[in-house]
Automatic annotation (TrEMBL), chains A, B:
Entry protein name: TetR family transcriptional regulator
Domain HTH tetR-type, chain residue ranges per copy: 2-60
One matching Pfam family: TetR_N
Keywords: DNA-binding, Transcription, Transcription regulation
Keyword Hydrolase annotated: no
DNA-binding region, residue intervals: 23-42
Length: 183, 183
DNA sequence: AGATTGTGAGACATCGACGTCTCATTCGGG
DNA sequence: CCCGAATGAGACGTCGATGTCTCACAATCT
């Protein structure tokens, strides 16, 4: 009887990631509950989205914590970041696209903080001479999100094996396409 | 007086890429015209989307033609591709995401052909020893789209200068982040 | 059994976006 | 300079989604 809130959010994330216009009725039926019950647990569509964002940001924040971005050199930190983030690639893709349609609403503070932490990693890479200075931290941050999103989709479509995702993103970002670049 | 149809479609692509629910009114105002005029040029929302797809694919195809992917080495061809594609970055981002959303219907044949041509370039880079073999053509194609999309949005948001976009995408894709990699 | 709580089904009003329409204004060509 | 075409502003009616509400039923607890 008791509605499983986590399960509802999981179903909602799956549907909304695929189609942002999914109706409350569709979400409710996908979760196996009635629209009325869905509204009893989430004040409205906005509340549901917000709950999704918070859960997603919390997961992403934990991943960033585990990556220990301040330790070691920037290259290793970036590798750890990609490794920890990869399991939540789909959620992150949802967040990065959903979060950038702000237009008036306040951007989630947690998201801004995560954005800043990742930018700081790229800046550190610049300062320590590990990353090329002609690519700005802002661009690299956007590029990272873009590659993760592209990777999530490629895995979803079967064009890239899930086991290869981590390596594909990290190597492309760090070393580029060129063959001559060793390790 | 004459409405710049291309410009309208370009703005529409930039907005619809990030938020599929962008209203006709928002698109109209972003393009600097009234909602009435927008409806005079496009029968409706569906017609606008369809026109976007067709024009986008046509422009992208022309860009790919101009890039002469079969000439010279794969590195130069990829640089040309990015250079020719960059002006239509917003449009391309819209196309690649739009092709993700739909399910069941038929994927535009023109898009599939373009996809194949890009993949072929990366495959050539592998065969000629210019590109690393551990990154598959399918992944590199998706990554290219992802980076172009991320770049288009970054420019739209003012986080990257339009003049830097070409260089940012090409260098990241070809050389990666690492500083030690020369040229 | 009785009471309490959660749920499903559906009615209902509201809201925003869409598509169509009219009318005054403005731009550009002849 | 004048006239036709294009545009902007806005007024509708329509439709789908939303959020609230009521009522009946089922599950759980005492």
């Amino acid at each position: 009887m008791a509605v499983d809130r986590e399960q509802v959010l999981k179903e909602a994330a799956a549907l909304l990631t695929r189609r942002a216009t999914t109706s409350m009725d569709e979400i409710a039926r996908a979760a196996g509950i009635s629209r009325a019950t869905l509204h009893r647990h989430f004040a409205g569509r906005d509340a549901l989205i917000k709950a999704l964002e918070e859960q997603g940001i919390a997961q992403f924040a934990q991943a960033v914590d585990r990556a220990r971005l301040a330790e070691g050199d920037a290259v290793g930190a970036l590798r750890r970041l990609i490794g920890e983030t990869e399991p939540h690639a789909a959620m992150l893709a949802f967040l990065s696209t959903e979060n950038q349609l702000f237009e008036g609403g306040e951007i989630n503070a947690g998201w801004l903080e995560l954005d800043a932490r990742i930018s700081a990693l790229f800046r550190r890479g610049h300062e320590e001479g590990d990353f090329r200075i002609d690519l700005s931290p802002a661009w690299l941050t956007e590029a990272l999100y873009g590659l993760i999103g592209a990777g999530a989709w490629a895995v979803h479509e079967g064009r890239v094996a899930r086991n290869d995702l981590n390596h594909s993103i990290a190597e492309l970002l760090l070393g580029g396409i060129r063959r001559s670049m060793e390790k």
